Amino acid sequence: VSHDAPQRTNMRMAEICKSYGFWPGYVSLCLELDRRIEAFTNIVHLDDMNLLDGEHGSISETVEEWKFLLHLAQSRSTDFHCHGTQNGNTIGNGSTNWSNCITVENVALLLAKIIGPDRALPVLQECDLTAELSERFTRICKILRIAEKRQSWYLLFSIIYGLPFMLSIQIREKSLKAGA
């Protein structure tokens, strides 16, 4: 069996997914085939933040990929307005749900969520995109910082007290089960 057979099969499957509009499969196969730029370009063209998730492995892996994605979002926002209704992304009152649209702010928020707001800001500054970010971005980054601090305290607590604490919980659970 040729080593190229699985590669060719995946390429054919990617084309089939694309022709039928099965975008999660298409994006996933592009990433598997190491066609990341193609995957990100199509995600931005499709204007769907849902395709940028860890489930499909479509999160940018390098700072350069994040910069590329941010620039694609920026060029899209100057060319088009978000039309969330094309994919059925409307709220009951008829207003558009912008959270699913590919915008600079939504991509920047995803970046801040993945690498942390303090590491995301220099990337955004380097791309000269901070002027495009709203007060909402600033507020969410504050919340992310608080969450990071709580996680680090929880991690420290679990490292220091984790084993004895976990053992005491297991002992209590066993005694409760035995008493029931």
Concise synopsis of the structure shown:
With 180 residues, the chain is an all-alpha fold. It has helices at residues 5-20, 23-32, 36-46, 63-79, 104-115, 117-126, 135-179.
The fraction of residues assigned to DSSP E strands is: under 5%
**Structural class, from secondary structure content?**
mainly alpha
Beta strand count: 0
Shape: flat
Report on the structure:
This protein has a domain at 50-133. Helices cover 67% and strands 0% of the residues. The chain contains 7 helices and no strands. The protein has helices at 5-20, 23-32, 36-46, 63-79, 104-115, 117-126, 135-179.
Write the layout of secondary structure elements.
Blueprint: H1 5-20, H2 23-32, H3 36-46, H4 63-79, H5 104-115, H6 117-126, H7 135-179
Helix pairs in contact: 1-2, 2-3, 3-4, 4-5, 5-6, 5-7
Properties at a glance:
single chain; 180 residues; flat
